[in-house]
């Protein structure tokens, strides 16, 4: 009998929480039961999901900011189907994939001035890890400064620049050479930068974990100080970028020109994990400085064709703009 994924899901759908209790995370499954979230969701469209009983829910979590264009967007879905139907060779590795080049070209068009080199990674945390790794190499400096309340990921590297102490407990010692400062405190920031050993200052233009906004002049002044002390200024746009804050990048609200930008989440269109670090060419040149360093940093799935293809719209252009009015009313804040 031929394998059928649809039949397997239908036959085992009722077992999903039992399977998680047994094999994956019993505590998380139990939490879902306690708070009444142990639903069996069977369909998603736009800003909504439906459970097995036909109840419709407005999905305000949006996969933690993955579905900026809504679930199962028809244009992205069509791109996935079209790509799979081609039986294209993927992950050849000794290759320069076309779709990665096309996506890089379109992303660069949408970046602040000077950002014209891209490294594709797998997730937001992977992109941030890459950015701080590149900053340390490019500057030959060891330290990274970050903000209180920040959230850049939960890998060991990003946990070391995570402003939430609850995430760090029990995982120490973390990576040395990181310093936390308070948002809007330019005096303390300059004190740290003046020491001359800071490779990068990394910020979320709007902090996603709790939603904290900086004072109007803070980010431009922080960027100016980074320029003054020759420190890389990194904008982590993983959660607030790609239209989520009303512009393609959130940092555009302050007319910032960072040295590096990280994006992920909705870059994958809700289908394939993918992220990117967009940087100044001189940073890329320092990291991959000659032929022997061509693969000094890489990741297996970073340029996978499914991740590169899933942002093509019906007209053939890439990276569609803000969501349609229908989706925007359902899933975006009123100030979009």
CATH architecture group name of the largest domain: 3-Layer(aba) Sandwich
Class by SSE composition: alpha/beta
Q: What's the SSE pattern? A: HHHEEEHHHEHEHHEHEHEEEHHH
Strand order of the largest sheet: 4-10-9-8-7-5-6
Note poorly predicted spans. Answer: 312-318, 320-336
- Please give the largest β-sheet: 7 strands, mixed
Q: Give the overall form.
A: globular
Number of DSSP-assigned strands: 10
Classify the helix fraction into a percent range.
25-40%
Distance between the termini: 51 Å
What is the typical, i.e. mean, pLDDT? 89
CATH topology of the largest domain: Aspartate Aminotransferase, domain 2
Overview of this protein structure:
- By secondary structure, the protein is α/β, with parallel strands linked by helices.
- It is 35% helix and 15% strand.
- The strands form 2 sheets. A 7-stranded mixed sheet has the order 4-10-9-8-7-5-6, with helices on both faces.
Describe the structure in brief.
This protein is of the alpha/beta class and 336 residues long. Helix content is 35%, strand content 15%.
SSE topology:
Elements: H1 5-12, H2 16-24, H3 26-34, E1 41-45, E2 48-51, E3 56-58, H4 62-65, H5 74-85, H6 98-109, E4 115-121, H7 124-139, E5 143-147, H8 156-159, H9 165-168, E6 178-181, H10 186-193, E7 198-203, H11 218-228, E8 232-236, E9 260-263, E10 275-280, H12 281-287, H13 305-309, H14 325-331
Parallel strand pairs: 5-6, 5-7, 7-8, 8-9
Antiparallel strand pairs: 1-2, 2-3, 4-10, 9-10
């Amino acid at each position: 009998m031929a394998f059928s994924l649809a039949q397997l899901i239908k036959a085992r759908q009722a077992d999903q929480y039992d399977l998680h209790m047994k094999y994956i995370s019993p505590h998380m499954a139990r939490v879902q039961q306690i708070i009444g979230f142990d639903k069996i969701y069977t369909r998603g469209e736009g800003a909504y999901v439906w459970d097995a009983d036909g109840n419709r829910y407005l999905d305000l979590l949006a996969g933690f900011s993955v579905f900026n264009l809504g679930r199962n967007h028809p244009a992205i879905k069509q791109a996935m189907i079209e790509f799979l139907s081609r039986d294209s060779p993927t992950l050849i590795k000794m290759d320069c994939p076309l779709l990665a080049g096309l996506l890089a070209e379109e992303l660069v068009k949408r970046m602040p001035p000077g950002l014209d080199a891209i490294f594709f990674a797998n997730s937001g945390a992977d992109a941030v890890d890459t950015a701080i790794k590149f900053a340390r190499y490019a500057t030959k400096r060891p330290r990274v400064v970050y903000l209180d309340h920040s959230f850049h990921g939960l890998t060991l590297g990003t946990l070391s620049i995570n402003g939430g102490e609850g995430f760090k407990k029990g995982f120490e010692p973390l990576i040395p050479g990181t310093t936390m400062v308070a948002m809007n405190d330019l005096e303390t920031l300059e004190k740290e930068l003046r020491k001359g050993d800071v490779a990068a200052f990394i910020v979320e233009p709007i902090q996603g974990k709790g939603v904290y906004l900086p004072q109007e002049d803070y980010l431009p002044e922080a960027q100016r100080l980074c320029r003054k002390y020759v420190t890389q200024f990194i904008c982590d746009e993983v959660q607030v970028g790609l239209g989520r804050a009303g512009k393609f990048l959130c940092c555009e609200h302050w007319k910032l020109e960072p040295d590096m930008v990280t994006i992920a989440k909705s870059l994958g269109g809700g289908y394939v994990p993918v992220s990117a670090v967009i940087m100044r060419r001189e940073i890329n040149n320092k990291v991959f400085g000659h032929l022997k360093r061509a693969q000094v940093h890489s990741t297996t799935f970073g340029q996978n064709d499914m991740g590169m293809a899933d942002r093509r719209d019906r007209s053939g252009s890439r990276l569609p703009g803000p969501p349609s009015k229908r989706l925007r009313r359902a899933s975006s804040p009123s100030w979009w």
